[in-house]
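Issue 218. Parser rejects a valid record. Input:
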Amino acid sequence: MILMSNRINSKEQFVKLWTEIYNTEGKPDWSHILPYYDDNIYFRDSIQEIRGMKEFKPMTERLTERSKDLQMKIINILFEGNIIFFEWEMTLSFKKYPNSTLFGASRIILNEEGKIIEQRDYYDLWGDIFDNIPGLGKGYRKFMKSRFG
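Output the parser choked on:
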């Protein structure tokens, strides 16, 4: 079997690609994984919706610029057919703020060429950030429980 370059073929390959974005010795770097994204990527998370590589690449550059350090730990991963679903913990270190750990999950859909055509990230941005700030976490959780719990 001949493997095409820039094609995601296995769970192990994906985990290696994904965890190399984030490191413990400086800023994140997406340059090695961007070729695995389709030019027509559709990306959505808690704060933004992006269509196309022309918008996606600058988003990765903004995150790199704002971050002092990012670390990613993949907890569970399922790779079936053209769908990758994984649970993660991401620790962000911003320049002027304490480290924050976000807990989330992502669903990735691959196109026929094995490139990422769609990525949807699910996480509670404010809850996870507020949990790391003394006095805010408990208040936020209490508010959320009273309004939505």
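Fixed in the parser; the record now loads. The chain is about 30% helix and 40% strand.
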